[in-house]
DNA sequence: GCGATCAGGT
DNA sequence: CACACCTGATCGC
């Protein structure tokens, strides 16, 4: 677990996705997407005051993110300080120290991140080199190779550092079904239910504010219906989403929230509380797309105890069960496990709760070859020592099936680019730092290393 | 009274 | 375990 405090070592006068503490002094702000854990400090009175006295400090984000942000009155004061930028359109920004007048120019390019509406990655190019901040991202294999701005001619730009979303920097997440697989599973499960009668209702119990729109539009299209949501304000300028959502509660698919939603559902009512017009009890089914991009457990793939006493959740389609999930853990007493995990965390002094902040690790990159999925890193950089950072040389790579044995001393970029694929493409997310070090050591010692796609082991 | 933090929840 | 939140109690100002 690592976190990102908001600034990059190459360009410490700008802040990304963090707006508190030291970030209050920054010359420019960048918001990758509109999730609360990336907005810490964004509505702070201190920052608001600073803006009122500044003529140069601005917040840069995508047009969609601007819309979503300003749809919340708490952030309305940002209106005059936001500069929305088009995707894949390099823009020069002047970073000005308003006290001294000192100025530094930088070029920023927004790249689509595929995480939620408006989400972007930021590519910065300036005097301290080229760096990429990914924010949260969800790209399919090969997407990166199609991002023109990561390339220069036929080559990949020399990227100094990648500030990589480390949410899935954990081997537990090496199996993540594709977005398409998740969607098809949802379509099938929901279609089977709501086609039974008009009293069959599905509740999409969504947790995040944004990120499910892809699901809504596809469900709406497939079943020729609209999805009930709490309000539409944030989508008012997004007709392609707006046409698939509604505040009319008389629909079979709901993604609304209500303080008593769970209670209503038990009572055969819709999560928003309304009943069938003729009083017939509704047949409710609940789906928790906890984040549909990594799937989750179902009845069939319920958690299995593993020797460590912890649980593994197999990736799969969204959990769907009738009304309640009380029976989800049939036959398994989870309480001792929870206690054990809690004690373990306390013993190791791990916070009980994750702090509200973006997760990112800084990877120093020698060259990034997305067309082959190869990421080389630089030798250790003593200036990087924060928790969770990779402090030793690391190779993130995966051999192609027909490639010959690895001879680390002879490992050239050209050989590598033809022989390897990266195991930590965004689709499968990244392996753990420990694992990378292990892999590197094996390579450095001359051992042959074979990693199978989708696997985290080596040997 | 207000925000930040913490403890609980989904 | 995780995601991305939410509610409510408590603390500091």
UniProtKB/TrEMBL annotation:
It is found in: Nucleus. The keyword Cell membrane does not apply. GO terms for biological process: DNA recombination; double-strand break repair via nonhomologous end joining; interstrand cross-link repair; telomere maintenance. Residues 406-432 are annotated as: Disordered. InterPro entries: RibonucZ/Hydroxyglut_hydro (IPR036866). GO terms for cellular component: nucleus. GO terms for molecular function: 5'-3' DNA exonuclease activity; damaged DNA binding; endonuclease activity. Keywords: DNA damage, DNA recombination, DNA repair, Endonuclease, Exonuclease, Hydrolase, Nuclease, Nucleus. Belongs to the DNA repair metallo-beta-lactamase (DRMBL) family. PANTHER family: DNA CROSS-LINK REPAIR PROTEIN PSO2/SNM1-RELATED (PTHR23240), PROTEIN ARTEMIS (PTHR23240:SF8). This is Protein artemis. It comes from Echeneis naucrates (Live sharksucker). The lineage of its organism: Eukaryota, Metazoa, Chordata, Craniata, Vertebrata.
């Amino acid at each position: 677990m690592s976190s990102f405090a908001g600034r990059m070592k190459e360009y410490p006068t700008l802040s990304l996705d963090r707006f508190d503490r030291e970030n209050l002094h920054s010359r420019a702000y960048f918001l990758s997407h509109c999730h609360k854990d990336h907005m810490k400090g964004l509505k702070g009175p201190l920052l608001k005051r600073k803006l009122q006295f500044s003529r140069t400090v601005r917040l840069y984000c995508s047009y969609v993110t601007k819309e979503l942000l300003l749809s919340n009155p708490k952030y309305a004061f940002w209106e005059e300080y936001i500069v929305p930028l088009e995707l894949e359109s390099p823009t020069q920004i002047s970073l000005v120290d308003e006290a001294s007048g000192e100025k530094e120019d930088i070029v920023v390019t927004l790249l689509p991140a595929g995480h939620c509406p408006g989400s972007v990655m930021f590519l910065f190019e300036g005097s301290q080199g080229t760096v990429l901040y990914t924010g949260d991202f969800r790209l399919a294999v090969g997407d990166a190779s199609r991002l023109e701005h990561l390339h220069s001619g036929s080559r990949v730009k020399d990227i100094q550092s990648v500030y990589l979303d480390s949410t899935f920097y954990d081997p537990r997440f090496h199996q993540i079904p594709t977005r398409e697989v998740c969607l098809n599973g949802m379509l099938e499960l929901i279609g089977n239910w709501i086609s039974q009668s008009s009293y069959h209702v599905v509740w999409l119990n969504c947790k995040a504010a944004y990120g499910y729109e892809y699901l809504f539009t596809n469900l709406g299209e497939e079943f020729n219906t609209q999805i009930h949501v709490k309000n539409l304000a944030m989508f008012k300028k997004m007709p392609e989403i707006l046409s698939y959502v509604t505040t009319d509660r008389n629909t079979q698919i709901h993604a609304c929230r209500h303080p008593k939603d769970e209670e209503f559902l038990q009572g055969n009512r819709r999560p928003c509380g309304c009943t069938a017009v003729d009083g017939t009890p509704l047949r409710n089914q609940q789906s928790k797309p906890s984040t549909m991009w990594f799937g989750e457990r179902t009845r069939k793939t319920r958690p299995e105890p593993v020797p460590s006493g912890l649980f593994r959740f197999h990736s799969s389609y969204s959990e769907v069960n009738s009304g309640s999930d009380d029976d989800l853990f049939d036959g398994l007493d989870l309480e001792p496990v929870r206690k054990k995990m809690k004690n373990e965390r306390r013993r190791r002094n791990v916070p009980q709760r994750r702090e509200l902040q973006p997760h990112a690790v800084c990877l120093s990159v020698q060259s990034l070859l997305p067309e082959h999925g190869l990421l080389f890193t630089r030798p250790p950089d003593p200036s990087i020592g924060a928790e969770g950072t990779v402090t030793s040389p690391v190779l993130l790579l995966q051999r192609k099936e027909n490639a010959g044995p690895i001879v680390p001393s002879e490992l050239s970029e050209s050989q590598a680019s033809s022989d390897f694929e990266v195991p930590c493409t965004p689709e499968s997310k990244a392996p753990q730092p420990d694992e990378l070090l292990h892999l590197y050591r094996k390579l450095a010692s001359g051992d042959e290393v074979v990693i199978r796609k989708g696997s985290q082991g080596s040997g």
